[in-house]
Amino acid sequence: MAINVAEITSVLKREIAGFEQKLQVSEVGTVIEVGDGIARIYGLNNAMASELLEFENGTMGQVFNLEEDSIGAVIFGNYLEIKEGDTVKSTGRLLEVPVGDAIIGRVVNPLGQPLDGGPAIQTTETRKLDIVAPGIAERQPVKEPLQTGIKAIDSMIPIGRGQRELIIGDRKTGKTAIAIDTIINQKGKGVKCFYVAVGQKESTVAGLVEVLRANGAMEYTTVVIATAADPAPLQYIAPYAGAAMAEYFMWKGEHTLCVYDDLSKQAAAYRQLSLLLRRPPGREAFPGDVFYLHSRLLERAVKLSDELGGGSMTALPVIETQDGDVSAYIPTNVISITDGQIYLEPELFFAGVRPAVNVGISVSRVGGNAQTKMMKKIAGSLRLDLAAYRELEAFAQLGTELDAATQKQLDRGARLVELLKQPQYKPMPVEQEVMVIYAGTQGYLDDVPLNKVQDFQNKFLAYVDSSFTALRSGLAEKKELTAEYEQQLKQALADFKAKVFTK
Predict the structure, then answer these.
(1) Regarding beta strands 255-261 and 191-198, do their DSSP bridges make them parallel or antiparallel, or are they unpaired?
(2) Is cis: bond before 230, omega within 30 of 0?
(3) Separation CA 348–CA 352 (nearest Å)
């Protein structure tokens, strides 16, 4: 058999030309101390701040402290499986989470791993957890409404797309209910929702997921969970994971909503990590950079400029207060970062006013810019009427003789409070909100008994749907209460009171 030298030579030359030496070099260190979700590592001299690390058993971690002769790292997983003397590899990467359409409708942990028993998440794209928020030139003012479906909020504390509105109150006052109602109300509005549960009971979160599923909201919602049983590092990164997942859609020009429930527990997890890694404690034992912890998260909420696609990310952070103390360290920090707050008061909650929104302390710093024209037109006097009612209510308790005008104002205020009550998980379309608030502020409820106000509202909305369908569809489409529609609304109210409603 003849050997073709030329052919062999050409093959060798081609192989030599195409030969690429792939040498992977990674720095390896050793665990010298481990416990409570943190590890101290020796030997990773070139480690970067926030770099991702891989432990011997495959668990991931992240550089937290850079010290003179060692580094402090947080462990994203079961730290009990890591022991002294284990090797740790530096990866040269920052922490990332999977993003994309595959994540929608799923229940995941902060690393993007499924917790709902479904298949593994198939996605090719990832986003870094911690990024620099878009600058001033990349933003535009908040002026597009994000309807919550809650009458008291949409009328007096409006939220816009790209806003950061804090929900604050004591435990068990309905904070999560407002956030869940807002998510349910985004159905059919093209808003992708991300609910981040930090430090909550697993049973509570499971119940919320079922509520979302029952209302058809899981089709456009992702639930990110770091429960009370999860290690502190996972609770610390959970809100950033939710923000990173939402940003993927925001940069594609879509609208997103992020609920962080709640940031008090994230701050407590961060305090735990900081104290374990011997960072100097400050006020209430929180580390000095706890303000930065929340500001760098909430600054990522933005309405992007039209040149960048006009996408938005709206943030609804939740803060739990202790005994109504809004002047504590974490509440004041987050109040100063956000564009307003919805304050829920226990006294109102236990008096049966639900949602228990205290209109006096609650505020939206975006204001009427984030309202539709029709809502702005009819809700102007609502806050003033309620404020006057609260003042007169305290005065009337003294048993003073009241003149007719004062009594009339008290009666109307009581009916408005009754009108703003709303059952849980029943958000209302904005055109219906406008119709019932108009009825209240224009005096159509003044002669309706207090215990019949809710009945009046429900029957009136049903009457409009059956006899004045053009009115509702017109308001929903135009989002403006023109003179013609106002006339139709007055006609509907007059006919309803005359023919249908009996006191």
Answers:
(1) parallel
(2) no
(3) 6
Whether 195 and 422 have beta carbons less than 8 Å apart is answered as no
Omega before 355 within 30 of 0, i.e. cis: yes
The DSSP H or E segment spanning 431 is helix 430-441
- Non-local (6+) Cβ contacts of 256 within 8 A are 191, 192, 193, 194, 246, 247, 249, 250, 311, 312, 313, 314
Give the three-state DSSP class for 41.
strand
What residues does 54 pair with on adjacent strands?
A: 60, 89
Provide CB contacts within 8 A for 475, sequence distance 6+.
374, 431, 434, 435, 481, 485
Q: Which residues contact 404 (CB under 8 A, 6 or more apart)?
A: none
Contact between 437 and 377 under an 8 Å Cβ cutoff? The reply is no
Residue written as tokens 């007059």?
A: 494
Catalytically annotated residues:
365
Q: How far apart are CA 378 and CA 428, in angstroms?
A: 16
Q: Are 173 and 314 in contact (CB under 8 A)?
A: no
Residue pLDDT, tens place only, 29-58: 999 999 999 999 999 999 999 999 999 999
pLDDT tens digits along 112-150? 999 999 899 999 999 999 999 999 999 999 999 999 999
201-234 burial, b if ≥16 CB within 10 A, otherwise e?
eeeebeebbebbeebebbebbbbbbbbeebbbbb
The two structure tokens encoding residue 115: 């917790």
Q: What is the pTM of this model?
A: 0.92
Instruction: Determine the pLDDT at residue 349.
Output: 95
Separation CA 253–CA 462 (nearest Å): 37
